[in-house]
Amino acid sequence: MTVTAFSTVRGVALSALTASAALTLPSTAHERAEVFAKCSGRLSALATNQRALKNPDVSTTERAHQNFEMMLSATLPDAIERGVPTSKPILWHASGWSEIAYLLADIQYSNDEIRAQRAKDAIEQRIDDCSALIL
Fold first, then answer.
1. pLDDT band at 52, cuts 50/70/90?
2. Which of 5-14, 43-52, 72-81, 111-120 has the lowest mean pLDDT?
3. Alpha-carbon torsion, ordered 46, 49, 54, 60, to 10 deg
4. Other beta carbons within 10 Å of 31
5. Mean pLDDT of the chain
6. Nearest of 119, 90, 89 to residue 107 by alpha carbon
């Protein structure tokens, strides 16, 4: 293999890795702030439920929530400088919190086992999506 061919293959591999990473973590400060705030809200709602049910996973969830709060704090100044209204992060956080709260209500109060399982799966997927950003 020539040096040129090797460099091209290496470049393609690097591009592929970069593209897959870009799909996971948004590229703009605005998008990152939104994702971090929503994930923070999701984890906050889950931790509230876990605390109420004395779930031993609550400390892990709270640590993840704190990580997203820290990432939001780090990203927010740039996002605000680029035009994000200061009230937006609160709305994004509430949106993430509400998502999980509604799904938890389906798990807790639904008489339909299929609906409850779909809600459980949806929570797991949303939390996994957030976790994938920091792992």
1. very high
2. 5-14
3. 10
4. 13
5. 85
6. 119
* Contact present, 61 and 5 (Cβ < 8 Å): no
Nearest CA-CA partner of 49 in 8, 99, 96, 100: 100
Indicate the SS3 state at residue 73: helix
What whole-number distance in Å separates Cα of residue 13 and Cα of residue 34? 30
Asked if 70 and 125 touch (Cβ cutoff 8 Å), the reply is no
Residues with Cβ within 8 Å of residue 44, at least 6 apart in sequence: 65, 93, 96, 97
Token pair, residue 41, equals: 């809200």
Q: How far is CA 41 from CA 31, 82, 83, in A?
A: 15, 23, 22
Other CB atoms within 10 Å distance of the CB of residue 67: 18
Q: Average pLDDT in the 53-69 region?
A: 97
Burial grade of 14 (CB within 10 A; 0-12, 13-18, 19 or more):
exposed
Mean pLDDT for 96-112 is 97
Asked if residues 48 and 108 have their Cβ atoms less than 8 Å apart, the reply is: no
